[in-house]
Specification:
The chain has 61 residues and is mostly helical. Helix 1 crosses helix 2. The protein is rod-shaped, with a radius of gyration of 20 Å.
Length: 61
Amino acid sequence: MSIVDSFKQASQKAENFAQKTQLRKAVITAETALSLCQLLSNYPHPQINTWAKKILINYVI
């Protein structure tokens, strides 16, 4: 295997790792946001309660 091929392979592995890391961070952020909405859906303030429930209805399958 040539040096160029080795470099391309290493670059691809690094890119794949970066994409997986970004995806993991996005999932954690989404889970955190949904958890917050679940907590706020019981909040006594009507505007906050409505906002949180709308988000949960629209984004939770």
